[in-house]
Amino acid sequence: MRLEWLEDILAVAQTGSFSEAAERRFVTQSAFSRRIQQIEEHVGVELFDRTRKPVQLRPTTEAQRARIEELTDALRQLVGDLKQGAKLSANRIMIVSQHALTATMTSLIIERAQRTAPDASFRLRSANLDECLTQLFSRQADIAVVYRLPGSSHSVRSDFVEAAVIGDERLVPVLAADRVAWLLERLAAGELPFISYPADVFLGQVMERAVLARLRRDLRLEARVETALTFASCEMALAGVAPAWVPMSLARRAIEEGRLADLSDHLPACDLEVTVIRLLGATGGLERDIWRQLTDRSLTLGETG
Known about the structure:
This protein is of the alpha/beta class.
């Protein structure tokens, strides 16, 4: 049963006249009469008592009037929701970012994107690096925001994607300010307790390559806690458990407040690039405009360290 048919039935019931119902439905009376006949042929019963003036619903139809009204309202709402959903979908950008970036820089990235598309809606997902790329390739995301070591390339073929650097980050060693003396004693003894990242996540690989490989020559390394989450690492450093390497953008406020100490004078830090990636050949106008805004070199997010 079509929505317009239900509306036709109710128009006759409310006006008691085929001619007035046709006027209300913005069609000619002859066209409306043909439509009513088509409805009755489809249902297989006469819906109206034409012998009475004003025209009335037959008892069997009248008994279902409340259901017809409810169904009409529900279908109208469904049509409206579908139209609204299509509008939102056409005006929505899906962004996936690494967990650490979600907590630190993604809000700045979305703020910049809104300069170009103030009416756009954004859906943000958080994942590890491999999952970010998987969502991009499966088109579950339009743009991925991920870290990269300076001078390196992403582990995807350049003929599949385009990437751009939009900012800089720095992975810095931090510890609760009142635990620095304890740490210096441990370093003097040739030991380094620390918060580690799993070897199979990006920051774990960065730590091994850029930090731990250097420290291992002179110190006995002791991983006190392992976590994949930079926020958890930062909290444990604040609690004085052990030093943690976290993005400066995550630690800056606590450092400025004197709760965390930046240990870069004692332990190596590591520079990172913040990059955006999208599939080559993306044609959506909204995505294209936002990409242009994000990759505008005059609007780089800037260094965070």
